[in-house]
Specification:
By secondary structure, this protein is an alpha/beta fold. The protein is 38% helix and 18% strand. It has a six-stranded mixed sheet, sandwiched between helices.
Length: 338
C-alpha cells in the first residue's frame, strides 16, 4: 500500500490531505487559491503543497469545484483545463473522482467531465454512507453549504448537478467566509430599528465570525471586502458600513451585536433547508467544514442530535483531526481512492 493525497480543488481554496499506508491522516493543507484570477494560482498553490508533502510516489485522488469560476466558459472546459494542470504537476500517479462513474485517469477526463464536475460533496457522502444511514450530512464551507441526506433513496432525490441540488435545498450558496452580507437579506435589525442593508460588497461573513471569535486564522484566508486588514477595528469598520455608519458612531459592543444579527440571518437561511430534509423527523446531523460550529448550533436550536465526526476520521492527533474535518471532501476522496 502507498501514501495517498486527497485533493479538493475549489474556486477559492486548494485543500489536500495526506494519508499514510494505513489511512491515517498525516497532514492537512489549505491555501487560498483564487482560481478566477488564472490557472497560475492553482499551479502556485499545488506546487507549494506538493513540495511540502514530499511523497513523490503517493497516489493523488482529485475532486474539484473550481471549474465553476468565470475564468472558464463552461464546466467542460474548466474540468479539462484544471486536469491538465494537475497532470503536469503531479505526474502519473493521479486519478480523478467521477462520482457514480468511479475513477478515471487523465486521458479519460474529457469524456467524463459531467461526472467529475462539482462532485466533492458526493465523495463525502459515499465515504460516510459506509457508516451512517438516515442521517443529514451538512458541510458548511467558506462559500457554500452542502446538505446531503445519507440514504440511497434520499440521496437520489436531491440530484447530482449543482442546478438540481440548488433546487432541492442541497446546495445553498452561503458560507462562513466569503458570502457578502448583503446576500443574507435586504434588511437587518440594529439598535431597535430595521435598516436596509447596503447592497455593496463592503463586508462578508468572515467579518461576522471574526468579530465573534468563531473563525480560526487557518480558515480566514480570503481577501476582505475593502482589501484592508483583519484586525478587530478594521473588521468592525466594514460591518458598520453595511448599515450606513462609521465605526466611531457606536462602541465595539454594538458592532458585536450587529454581527450576531447577521449570524442569525444566516442561521435562519440554513435552518429552512435543514427542516426541508428532516421533515419532522429527529434526524441525526453530521457536521463538517469550517462552519461546523454553526451547524452544531443549528442542530441544537432544532433539537437534533449531532454525530461525532471524529468517529469516522483516522488521525494522529486532535489538531490534525480538526483540520481534516474542515477539509472533509479531500479526506473522503483520499479514503475512497483505490
Amino acid at each position: 500500500m502507498q501514501y495517498k493525497v486527497g485533493w479538493d480543488i475549489g474556486g477559492a481554496h486548494l485543500k489536500a490531505v495526506l494519508l499514510d499506508a494505513h489511512g491515517v491522516v498525516q497532514s492537512v493543507y489549505q491555501l487560498a487559491c483564487p482560481l478566477w484570477k488564472g490557472l497560475h494560482e492553482l499551479e502556485q498553490a499545488m506546487t507549494e503543497i506538493w513540495q511540502s508533502i514530499k511523497q513523490p510516489d503517493a497516489l493523488s485522488a482529485v475532486t474539484m469545484t473550481g471549474e465553476l469560476v468565470d475564468l472558464f466558459p463552461n464546466r467542460q472546459v474548466g474540468v479539462c483545463e484544471i486536469a491538465k494542470v494537475v497532470n503536469r504537476l503531479l505526474g502519473k500517479h493521479v486519478v480523478f473522482y467521477a462520482g457514480d462513474n468511479g475513477w478515471v485517469r487523465f486521458d479519460a477526463v474529457a469524456s467524463h467531465t459531467q461526472a467529475i464536475a462539482s462532485m466533492n460533496w458526493l465523495a463525502s457522502a459515499q465515504y460516510l454512507s459506509q457508516f451512517a444511514d438516515n442521517t443529514l450530512l451538512i458541510d458548511i464551507g467558506s462559500t457554500t453549504t452542502d446538505m446531503i441526506p445519507l440514504g440511497k433513496s434520499q440521496l437520489s432525490a436531491i440530484g447530482r448537478t449543482d442546478a438540481h441540488r440548488m433546487a432541492n435545498h442541497a446546495l445553498i450558496y452561503t458560507g462562513v467566509v466569503r458570502t457578502p452580507l448583503m446576500a443574507l437579506g435586504p434588511t437587518i435589525n440594529f439598535k431597535a430599528q430595521t435598516y436596509y442593508v447596503a447592497a455593496e460588497y463592503f463586508a462578508t461573513t468572515a467579518d461576522v465570525y471574526r468579530v465573534l471569535s468563531q473563525l480560526s486564522a487557518e480558515a480566514d484566508l480570503a481577501d476582505t471586502g475593502d482589501g484592508k486588514g483583519k484586525t478587530l477595528s478594521e473588521t468592525a469598520t466594514r460591518l458598520a458600513r453595511m448599515v450606513g455608519h462609521d465605526v466611531e458612531d457606536y462602541p465595539l459592543s454594538d458592532w458585536v451585536e450587529l454581527a450576531k444579527a447577521f449570524k442569525q440571518q444566516q442561521k435562519n437561511i440554513l435552518m429552512q433547508s435543514v427542516k426541508y430534509h428532516v421533515n419532522q423527523d429527529v434526524m441525526p446531523i453530521i457536521a463538517v467544514g469550517v462552519g461546523a460550529f454553526l451547524c452544531q448550533e443549528i442542530a441544537e436550536d432544532l433539537g437534533l442530535p449531532v454525530i461525532n465526526i471524529a468517529d469516522y476520521v483516522q488521525v494522529k492527533d486532535s489538531h490534525t483531526q480538526w483540520q481534516a474535518v474542515n477539509c472533509f471532501p479531500a479526506y473522503a476522496v483520499a479514503r475512497l481512492a483505490q
